[in-house]
Amino acid sequence: MDKIQEPLDAAAFCRPPMQFRGVPFFAWNCKLDRALLLREIDCFREMGFGGFCIHVRTGLATPYMGTEFMATVRQCEVYGKERGMRTWLYDEDRWPSGAAGGEVTKNPELRSRHLLFTRVPYGGDTSALPPLPYSRAGNARTENGKLMCRYDISFLPDGTLRSAKKLAPEETAQGTAWYAYLETQAPEAWYNNQTYIDVLNPKATEAFLAKTHELYKKLLGAEFGAAVPAIFCDEPQTPRRLCLPESFAFADVTLPWTERLAQLYEQEYSANLWDDLPLLLWDLPRGGSAPARWRWHKLLTDCFEIGFLKPYGDWCVKNHLGFTGHLMEEPTLQSQTAATGDAMRCYESFTLPGIDMLCGNFEFTTVKQCASVKNQMGRSGMLSETYGVTGWDFDFRSHKLHGDWQAALGVTQRVLHLAWAGMAGESKRDYPATLNYQSPWYREYGGVETHFARVAEALTRGRPIVHLAVLHPIESFWLVYGSAASTSLRREQLDSDFQNLTKWLLFGGVDFDFISEALLPKLCQKSGAPLAVGQMQYDMVLVPNCETLRSTTLGILRAFQTAGGRLVFLGTVPKRVDAELSAAPAALAEKCEILPFNRQCVLEAAEPLREVSLRGADGRLTENFLYQLRQDGEVRWLFLAHGAEPPCRDVVESQEVTVTLRGRWSVQCWDTMSGEISTLPVRYLPQNKTRLHWKAYAYDSLLLRLTPAQQGDDAASAAESTKQTALGTEIPISEQVTVHLPEPNAMLLDFAEFALDGEPYRKKQEILRIDNILRKELRLPQRTDSVAQPWTVQAKPPVHKLRLRFAVQSDVRVENIRLTLEQPENVRLFCNGQEIPVHVNGWWVDHAIHTVPLPVLEPGRTVLEAELPFGEQTNLEWLYLLGDFGVRAVGAKAVLTAPIHSLTFGNIVPQGLPFYGGNLEYEIPFTLPQAGRVTAQAAHYRGHLMTFSLDGSVPQQVFLPPYVWHSSHLKAGSHVLRITLFGNRFNQFGPLHLFDSAWKYMGPGSWRSQGGQWSDEWQFRRTGILSRPVLTFFAE
User: Fold this and answer.
1) Neighbour count for residue 689 (Cβ, 10 Å)
2) How many whole angstroms separate alpha carbon 983 and alpha carbon 920?
3) Res 2: pLDDT
């Protein structure tokens, strides 16, 4: 994202340029059809997006980076550019980045490798070993390596090390023998039957850049930095740094490795890594942690940066292409230690550092770590891959809330997860919902996107105002990263402190940046006070419950304190320097403040730094708002946003917030939803402060422009609004109203009897389970998301015949009914034993879901049978009946009923529309006795949004509290209000057999749940306008 220097004017704010708009992941998950892709780009423009990020996903059938693929990339880039849109690149066939679709790791020397530490030598009985946790970077025992060392390990009764001896070849262990093997990752279907790369090896990165970036440079290099602004690097990671469950465990453990690691360790620390290896896994007596553990994690993190991220970033800078994306598992000390070592250390090479925020999570530490580096290095913005893994029913309210809170913490560029090119086969379960034409609300999204473009327009200007720095405790966590039984309590406490401190400060209204000890020496070239870290300056530094400090950190903090800077130690004072026991931190702490680790002490200590105070009507600090304050010349921008879901989204409640600002300011509200600008009344306080009031509803945000107050502003600003709300009269409306369905209704056929190759029919099963059963029997790969890409697999004609039998029950005669088929070629259909022709007559929801007409269904039982070829490339999917009918669904049984032309307000599922996923148009007639105005409030709904249209007028969106629509002046007489509820596809394509309603991770496995998570009975979600809208008349 470009760094903006010129002032923001009203015209640009009203119509924000494309560069500030989000871009969806454009999921290329099928055989590429250029005409279809170009039409989808038009959809993105209609949705308000500023471009698209081409992202290969499971299902790609066009050879990756081949001639056709690259020609399609080029055509999409040209087509987008002609429409003012930018094409963002993605660097991999799926993820994580590095293997170039498996091309790099065809060279075994570049494959991911790890050290296996085990009690069972190669060839021994491994049946009693617990499985290792899976990671894409490879942690499994492969037995394809070589023995590097044997150890004799003995323990004290408490599980700490008594001794750890490296054995000579002829020696026998007196205690427990442990073996260290250097292994490479085994080939996996996910990497197209290759492996991930060794990210610690610069040669692997060089090969990756040659097979990906150089090819894109040849194709699009002239557009780098312009129409092609950046390339997205997704989840680079090391093999997991694992710990034993307890010291005496009979278990394997793996550690990341690369060929030169032992040599680098000796060069860095003048110590032998093979001698120190046991100290990484086991603790010393009396709760001791060996410095070797800290050294090991530091070296690995440095190797990851030097081996992968730095050469990647250097290439991008040299070629004028932005380097963006995100790391693996950023949020906790535990997760980042295991996956990358230190997230902040890794952001240095990104020109547009980024994060991902999936599942509707609120990971404040993830955002704050990245934003801190962004601030300190003066990067122009920060990216977030967001909204993914949330399911079909993640509505506009949630889109706004989660985009808002991330913007308040520094995100300026949203990459929206995700827009499917197609829905064939497994693609429809690839972390929905899709931000494309397959979602019935897609044409309405432009308002949401314009809101975020306006926010980004303001928050890319100037610099953030932050006075407080917090020393990041990741390196202290490394020290206690030992066996779970002996270190988990301390680890959990450090992580809890890390999360709590972040929330105390952010929700207490005190912004801060984290300081990375690894980056500090580079960014702090001049010691003193205030503490200058890159482009930021801090008046106060908190050291939170750290175990160790780097010697460089200690020196910088000592100079800061000596120069008058305020240095505060929270909780315990570090006892180590560079992981070695030292009295130096305590000596420094004696000259500083040492405070208990609690919210009160933290906020009281930070109070002198406060720029913004947010208090409720009771005078207490609010606990649900986040903010960002920026200095843009003489102007300041303040953005306020909610940082949590409301307790109940169906209850309309407002919150009276008193906003107090340091300084005397004239305040304008720049309304990011409407584009309107208005001056707000303020009151000036004697302490050189400005106060205003905000009536905040759930999901609201507020963008304020602050300009220095001029003399004479006091009287004009002090007046508060005294406008009274007029009283109206409620208009009665009918309980039952006419409804229109823009799409055909649907009945799901997801259970069938089945027979393979002429065998007798077996008991009915759910379709995806049938697929699993048959693939297991036929020894075919299971059809999940973790399969080799179609472009790498030689197509094999299916040699089996599968027959499915469905029983359809109907109360009524149904005409003009259609059946969906995804692979209609070579399918035979039978209705009550009579074969019927298969003539494709259209598509439904997605171009890959074809429809074929069926004969009239008479009342009673109809037997439908489908005979189809079955093989490795077969997509065995749910089928649907489509037409003008109703459906009565109870438990696991569904019956066709009379068409639905009217509804009562409430859940549509039991009213004949259980599987309907389109929009609903409610017609509400009413009569006015005289001229006036009308409001309508529909506070209880489940859908993405509503629009209101009176007497055929242009529809107006409503999706935020207080959920009220206002009419213009109306004449007396009859009127019709049409409320359109924009639906979602959960009750059509969602995981309807997943029993856990609180399940958050809406990935492919959600459709294949097992055990207590599975239910044969459908688990629908409420849809519709759930209670009668309230219409109120105001006479004029």
Assistant:
1) 15
2) 7
3) 56
Cα–Cα dist 690/702, whole Å: 16
C-alpha distances in Å from residue 301, one per residue of 237, 261, 291, 514: 10, 12, 16, 18
- Provide the token pair at 1032: 């109120």
Nearest 10 degrees: Cα torsion 342, 348, 351, 357 = 20
**Contact status, residue 643 vs residue 361, Cβ threshold 8 Å:** no
Q: Hey, how many other C-beta atoms are within 10 angstroms of the C-beta on 973? A: 10
What is the share, in percent, of the chain residues with pLDDT greater than 70? 98
Closest-CA residue to 309 (of 355, 346, 267, 270): 346
Six-digit token pair at 11? 């015209």
Distance between CA atoms of residues 121 and 589, nearest Å: 50
Q: Say which residues have a Cβ less than 8 Å from residue 927's Cβ, sequence separation at least 6.
A: 973, 974, 975
Residues 805 and 819: their CA atoms lie apart, in Å, by: 14
β-pairing verdict for 531-533 and 512-515: unpaired
Pick 612-723's CATH classification: 2.60.40, 3.40.50, 2.30.30, 3.30.460: 2.60.40
Burial class for 129, CB neighbours closer than 10 Å (0-12, 13-18, 19+): middle
The 3-state DSSP class for residue 339 equals helix
Position 4 scores a pLDDT of 65
Residue recorded with tokens 């109120």: 1032
Region class of 447: left (phi > 0), else alpha (psi between -120 and 50), else beta: alpha
Residue at token pair 């030992």? 482
CATH dotted code for 745-897: 2.60.120
- The token duo for 812 is 């009524």
Q: Which of 266, 113, 317, 135 is nearest to 200 (CA)?
A: 113
Pairing of strands 146-155, 113-118: unpaired
Indicate the SS3 state at residue 452. helix
**Which tokens in the block code for residue 168?**
């000579």
Residue segments in the chain with a per-residue pLDDT below the cut of 50: 715-716, 718-722
Amino acid residing at 567? L
**Please, which residues have CB within 8 angstroms of residue 983's CB and are 6 or more apart in sequence?**
440, 441, 916, 917, 918, 919, 920, 943, 944, 1023
Which pLDDT value is given to residue 499?
99
* Both structure tokens of 820: 């969906």
How many residues belong to the chain? 1036
DSSP sequence for 280-313:
HHSPBTTTB--HHHHHHHHHHHHHHIIIIIHHHH
CA distance linking residue 554 with residue 551, whole number of Å: 5
For the domain with range 731-740+916-1035, which CATH number is right: 2.40.50, 1.20.120, 1.10.3470, 2.60.120? 2.60.120
Q: Which residues pair with 844 in a beta bridge?
A: 846
- pLDDT tens track for 296-319: 999 999 999 999 999 999 999 999
User: Which of the 8 DSSP states describes residue 564?
Assistant: T
Residue 329's region, left for phi above 0, alpha for psi from -120 to 50, else beta, is left
pLDDT computed for residue 243 by the predictor = 96
Question: In degrees rounded to 5, what are phi and psi of residue 787?
Answer: -115, 160
CA distances from 828 to 310, 724, 756, 815 (A): 57, 70, 14, 21
Rounded CA gap, 880 and 824, in Å?
A: 14
The closest alpha carbon to 26, from 419, 478, 355, 511, belongs to 419
The SS3 assignment for 224 reads: strand
Which of 125, 547, 483 minimizes the C-alpha distance to 278?
483
Q: Are strands 893-897 and 886-890 parallel, antiparallel or unpaired?
A: antiparallel
Q: Which string of DSSP letters, residue by residue, matches 729-775?
A: EEEP--SEEEEE-SS-EEEEE-EEEEEETTPPPEEEEEHHHHHHHHH
Q: How far apart are CA 182 and CA 1007, in angstroms?
A: 38
Domain boundaries, the chain: 468-475+484-609, 612-723, 731-740+916-1035, 745-897
Unique residue bearing structure tokens 């890390």: 498
Q: Tell me, what DSSP letter sits at residue 953?
A: P
